[in-house]
Amino acid sequence: MWARFIEMEKLNSKLYVQNCYIIKENERLRKKAQILNQENQQLLLELKQKLSKTKNPNGSNQGSNNSLSTSSSASGQS
After folding, report:
1. Count of H helices and E strands in the chain?
2. Which residues, 6+ apart, have CB-to-CB distance to 34 below 8 Å?
3. Among residues 16, 31, 35, 72, which one has the fewest Cβ atoms lying within 10 Å of its Cβ?
4. Record's PANTHER family (predicted)?
5. Counting Cβ atoms within 10 Å, is residue 48 exposed (0-12), middle (13-18) or buried (19+)?
């Protein structure tokens, strides 16, 4: 009976360490995703500005640049 208890404790400890590693890796990946999302939003803004300048050099046709829109669902935030 004690052997089974010790075996279960060892397994529990091993699973705990694995879980801690997974949590740490998840946090690292979440931070990386946030950084990539910020970079993506900045690049999208720059692209919109360039398209706006090329399509509307005199300020006409405003509102026709709605094909590029940001989406909060694509931000990776939960």
Report:
1. 1, 0
2. 76, 77
3. 72
4. PROTEIN LITTLE ZIPPER 4
5. middle
